[in-house]
Amino acid sequence: MSATQFSWIPFYMELANKLLLLKNKHSELVDFIYSLDREYVNYIHNDDGTDVSDIDPFSVFAIFNRKITDQNRLKILQQFKKHFNVEADIPEDFNGIPVLNPQKSTFFSRSSATTQIPLLWDLFESVIEKKNSFSDCFDKLQKTKGVKWNITIGLYWIRPYDYLPLDRNS
Predict the structure, then answer these.
(1) What is the rounded distance in angstroms from the CA atom of residue 102 to the CA atom of residue 110?
(2) 122 Cβ contact list (under 8 Å, min separation 6)
(3) pTM for the complete prediction?
């Protein structure tokens, strides 16, 4: 797999690095998410329909890795590029990227978000910083509601040279 063959890799990896800077600033990230066109984030809400107060980085990546048009993905990524000052070019293609079902495009369960979101951030950090805590974080998440093999898709998005997605197509 080469960056020239998959133009999304440099952008995705740099964006992951930038998101890690918000590990302890979730409210800033939530504010940015809800500043996007609501069409793209209307599925991210509490059971009563109100906005969530917290979010994990994998669910942020899912905003532009759902079954939506490439044109909409590019619109969303342009906003991410600007907001996070991503230097890498916007992808020219989305070849090889597994996408999530629009009905299940968050990595946390609404009923256990307060425990899952910190675990998802810990896993994200362990991957980006190549910490030894990866297996512990991964195992803890496997015991939570709604997180199983789907997390491998998120790992692939942020570090495609190190992880494989265990999705239907792959």
Answers:
(1) 16
(2) 133, 137
(3) 0.93
